Amino acid sequence: MTARTRKINKKNRTKHMMGNKKNKSGKKWITAITAASKTLDKTGSITKARTIFRKQALINARKLFGSVGEKM
């Protein structure tokens, strides 16, 4: 006896090909202000929060505009 094959209609085929996009979410950006406020709450140091703020702002700028010394 041969195995039964399931007929794939258009609805099931598109679900299979597209996948479940609801569960896939991209990485969320960490704003510089959020990173600095978390550091300030954790350590209580304004200087550490300021350095974290500048580091995160630089990371976000590199994500948007590319590396600082990059030539085209």
Concise structural overview:
The protein is mainly alpha-helical and 72 residues long. The protein has helices at 10-18, 32-43, 46-65.
What does this structure look like?
With 72 residues, the chain is mainly α. The protein has a domain at 29-66. It contains three helices and no strands. The termini are far apart. Helices cover 57% and strands 0% of the residues.
Task: Output the structural class.
Answer: mainly alpha
Give me the number of helical elements. 3
Shape: elongated
Quaternary state of this entry equals single chain
Mind sketching the topology for me?
Elements: H1 10-18, H2 32-43, H3 46-65
Helix pairs in contact: 2-3
Keyphrases for this structure?
72 residues; mainly alpha; 3 helices; 57% helix
